[in-house]
Amino acid sequence: MFVGVGPSRVRDLFKEARANAPCIVFIDEIDAVGRQRGKGGFSGGNDERENTLNQLLVEMDGFNPSTGVVVLAGTNRVDILDSALTRAGRFDRQITVDKPDITGRKEIFGVHLNGIELEGTTEDYSGRLAGLTPGFVGADIANICNEGAIQAARRGADSVGMIDFEKAVDRIIGGLESHKLISKEERNIVAYHEAGHAVAGWFLEHADPLLKVTIIPRSTGALGFAQYLPKELSLRTEQQIMDIVCMALAGRAAEEVFFGKVTTGASDDLRRVTDMIYQTIQLYGMNDKVGQLAFHKDPNAFGSDKPYSDATGQIMDEEARKVVNTAYQRTVDLIKEKKDEVQKVAELLKEKETINHDDIIDLIGSRPFKGDENYQDFVSTRYLREGKENSEQEKVEDNDEPINNDIPEGPALA
Description:
Layout: H1 5-19, E1 23-28, H2 31-34, H3 44-61, E2 69-74, H4 102-113, H5 122-132, H6 138-154, H7 162-174, H8 184-202, E3 210-214, E4 225-228, H9 238-259, H10 267-282, H11 310-337, H12 339-352, E5 354-356, H13 357-364, H14 375-378, H15 381-399
Parallel strand pairs: 1-2
Antiparallel strand pairs: 3-4, 3-5
Helix pairs in contact: 1-3, 4-5, 4-6, 5-15, 6-7, 8-9, 8-12, 9-10, 9-11, 10-11
Main location: membrane
Region (Disordered): 383-414
Domain AAA ATPase AAA+ lid: 128-167
């Protein structure tokens, strides 16, 4: 960008907005020009960005305030915005848009499923799919509905069924099915690797419930994957985290127990384990040796800058290795204890390639933990329908309560 072009465009934008007042100005990805000044390097382009930001600040709240112009902005990096931009009088009201929960996903599915010819009702399908897609956002949900319709068209069906949507979810999570040929030995290792994950998670109380596991190769390079139903919790205990860590290590543990060697197939598992363990030590204060401390990295700092000393960093590394080694040994012991169950699941995987929650129950029995009997309700429409009915019943009961006239009337908040 040429010198002066950025501020000039900002002036022209607000001039046009004032001419069309009342007017709303929306700036998407505001962090492109609104990041903290003096933190962006040493190039001349950084000066031009700062000049653009300065002009934006003047237009929003300078000597000549704009009447009748409301300024909105969107960003995924609110943490790097300049403090002058977010102070009172400018972008002082911040609204966080989180990923939808199961109820929100159900409503979004209801919108996108309208107009699609379904084998069942929109209510049933939206509830079931909401349970199968934790962590998905609106764009992902729209993609699933579109991909499900494509899958139905490919098989020549007149309507879209749950099998089509399940294939769509698999495609988004794991990628396209690959026709890559793998050797019999590799297929055997993959089956036991995935069976290790499935069985360990089955017998770890705080692990996420299994939805399905497959050994069909994917275009992303994965030779198999397991899909779970993460518990949408705001808080987790150390024991809950360690159960998830053990489940992630179970694939490699199964390789060691059954074949006496490990492969490169656990690379992604190890990456996730490393991230989780360092978070417990650096952020959550869950390590006795490091103590009740939280070391948050400055997103604007250089890569070599750390908020702790080299000595503390060495202690963190030692503790992380110790925790992972302990968790891995616990996982190996569990796989040895459940060796017959792992073998049954692996052999069924080699036969069917994909098995689901019901197959596991038929093979090794139900999970031995309280509350899991409601698992199917959680991923079915009945869970949502009953929750809605209970909510409506509570509202009816609330209407029977006496009105408290001592509360003064005030303006309603939307």
